[in-house]
Amino acid sequence: MSARQRIAVIAGDGIGKEVVPAAIECLESIASIHSLKFDFVDLPWGSDHYMATGSMMPADGLEQLSTHDAIFLGAVGIPEIPDTETLWGLLIPIRRYFEQYINLRPVRSLAGVDSPLKAGSNIDFLIVRENNEGEYSEIGGRIYRGLPQEAAVQESVFTRHGVQRAARYAATLAASRAGRLTSATKSNGIVHTMPFWDEIVEQVVTEAGGVELETVLIDALAARMVLKPWSLDVVVASNLFGDILSDLGSALTGSIGVAPSANLNPERKHPSLFEPVHGSAPDIAGKGLANPVGQIWSGVMMLDHLGHHEAAMHLSHAFEDVLAAGISTRDLGGSASTEEFTTAVLSAISETAKVVAP
Ligand code: NAI
Ligand code: MG
Fold first, then answer.
1. Domain boundary, last residue among 253, 286, 319
2. Range of the domain at 81
3. Which residue has its alpha carbon closest to ligand 1 atom 26?
4. Looking at the whole model, is its pTM more than 0.85?
5. Nearest Cα to 276, choosing from 78, 104, 79, 75?
6. Which-ligand-closest: CA of 341?
7. Is there a single domain that holds both residue 175 and residue 291?
8. Could you tell which of 47, 280, 283, 298 is best to mutate to test the pocket of ligand 1, judged by most ligand atoms within 8 Å of the CB?
9. Over the stretch 71-109, which tens digit does the pLDDT of each residue have?
10. Nearest C-alpha to atom 36 of ligand 1 is from which residue?
11. Distance 12 CA to ligand 1 centre (A)
12. Residues 136 and 230 in one domain
C-alpha cells in the first residue's frame, strides 16, 4: 500500500478554472484504477484572492505549499490586474522558493493533431528552460519618470551555480535520449551573460561526456525550429529564451493548448509544480472552449514525477487515443467542448483500464 500523497491544486484564473477540474477528474479516475491515494487540496488563490485581499496568495502561502508532495496549477492573470502583480505575486515566488530551477517542456507531435508545418508529424524534443534566474530579475528600475529623458534599466542575473545545474540536468536528459544537446545563446549581441552561459554549458557537457553539444544563436534556432524541428533532441535555454521557444514549439505541434510543463526541483527537497504552458486565455474563458490537453499532460508529468509510471502512461495513452480518434477542441479545428473532450478521455481511461492496470 502506497502512502497518501498531498497535491496542492491552484486552478487560478480564466481557463485555469475549467481545465484544472477537467484534469483532476482524469487524475481521480486514474488514481482509483491504479490504487493511488491522492489528497487534492484546493487552494482558491489567484486574482479573486488579489481583488479581495490585495495579494495573490496568503502571507503564509509558501509555507502552506511546502507541506504538499506536488503543486498542480492552472494559470494566473486577468486583464484587470497588471501581469507583473499576478506573475510575481504567485508563480515566480513559488518557482524560486522551492528551487524549481528546471522548467521542462516537452514538444511532441500528437496523432490526430495537425502541425502548421508540412512535415510536422515527427517532432519530439524537450526544452529545458532555466527557471530561477537569467533575464527574469527584479534588479533595475526607472529614473526621470515622466520626463523626456526617462530611462529604464533591467539587469539579467546569471550565476555559475544556476547555469551549471540547468546544464547538468539537460546533459543527463540528453544522455538518456539521442545524446544531442542544443544550447540556445546570443553571445554575439549579449556580450557578458551569454558568453558566460556558453562557457559553463560547454564545461559541464565536456565533463559529463557522451553528449554531443551544439551552441546555436537563438534567432537561427527559432528559424531551425520551424524548418527542421525533427533535428532537435534536447534544447537548453535561459529563462527568457526557453519561455519564447516553448510557445513556438507548442504552436508547431498544433496549439498552445496542448503543451505541458513541469517546474522541477530535481533534488526533491521541495515540491515541484506542474502546469500547462498556456496562460489564462481571457478571450475564451468561461465559454467551455478551452483545450484541457496541456493540463492533462501536465498531470501525466506529475504522475511520473511522483513515481507512478504506469499510471502516467495510462493517462497519456488515454488523451492521445482521443485525439487520434479525431475528437478535439476548437483550437485544434475540432468542435468538442472542454467537457465533451474530458468525457471522452474518461471513457478512454476506463476502456484501456483492463489492458494497462496492474
Ligand atoms: P494565453 O496562453 O492565455 O493565450 C494565448 C492564445 O492562446 C489565446 O488566443 C488563447 O485563447 C489561446 N489558448 C491558450 N490556451 C488555450 C487552451 N487551453 N485552449 C484553447 N486556446 C488556448 O496567453 P496570453 O493571452 O498572452 O495571456 C493571458 C493571460 O495569461 C495574461 O494575464 C498572462 O500574463 C497570463 N499568463 C499566465 C501564465 C501562467 O500562469 N503560467 C503563462 C502565460 C500567460
Ligand atoms: Mg510563457
1. 253
2. 1-101+271-358
3. 279
4. yes
5. 75
6. 1
7. no
8. 280
9. 999 999 999 999 999 999 999 999 999 999 999 999 999
10. 279
11. 12
12. yes
